[in-house]
Amino acid sequence: MMRKQMAKRVIPDFQEGKGEELVTLTRRASLASDRYRMLFAKVDQLCRTPEKKLIALTSSIKGEGKTTTTANLAIVAARDFGKRCLIIDGDFKNPTLAKKFAMPEESGLIDVIEGRVQLGNALKRGPVENLAILPMGRRSGKENNIWTTEEIKHVLTEVRAWFDYIWIDAPPILPLFDMSFISDSVDGTLIVVRAGEVPEQVLAQAIKSLGSSKIIGSVLNRAKMDWPSRYYEYGY
């Protein structure tokens, strides 16, 4: 209990900025937001038995929307379902979580791993209640793969005691990243697939390299669907 209170106290307030649009914040009553709520409800159902807290989101290649999916999924989980959530930027080659939330490139995960900042001081308060964010932090360009370090395991063990769900924005699987490093550290993995963009054989290769033991499911992103316009007027 003391750890949870400490974490809540040290997280600075989220600052509104000009980040990329997150539909669950800007259009809460939209069809897209409803889809994210449905997605979390399904993930939550799958993660209850056995309990899964650490969920990595990845994709076959760059640009399929994994960071956007991670952010929106965490927002609805925290705001609409009352789950204590943390988003970790785990894409050390191309970190974009801070930009997504319009946060300055200050201390983050790398600083914690390298011992410059304590974990509690690196957490940032998200735009909704119950949501915290751990960005990558400032990179020197000389960092190795953070997922091969012992320190990352200590970080994940610590936050597991503080939050109901930890969402990790992981690197894309192809062409070179070995997701086994992350699979060994998390409870489950969601694969984000952008509709009409990734050839079937590329997706199959990515899934094969990932292995099936930790895969919870896949998220089809940017699929075109025809819905009556009146559906968009529905809200809670």
TrEMBL record:
Origin: domain of life: Bacteria
Any GO molecular function: protein tyrosine kinase activity
Pfam families referenced in this protein's UniProt entry, alphabetically: AAA_31
Keyword annotations from UniProtKB, A to Z: ATP-binding, Kinase, Nucleotide-binding, Transferase, Tyrosine-protein kinase
UniProt keyword Nucleotide-binding present: yes
Domain AAA: 53-201
Gene3D superfamilies given in the database record: P-loop containing nucleotide triphosphate hydrolases (3.40.50.300)
Protein name, per record: CpsD/CapB family tyrosine-protein kinase
Source organism: Candidatus Manganitrophus noduliformans
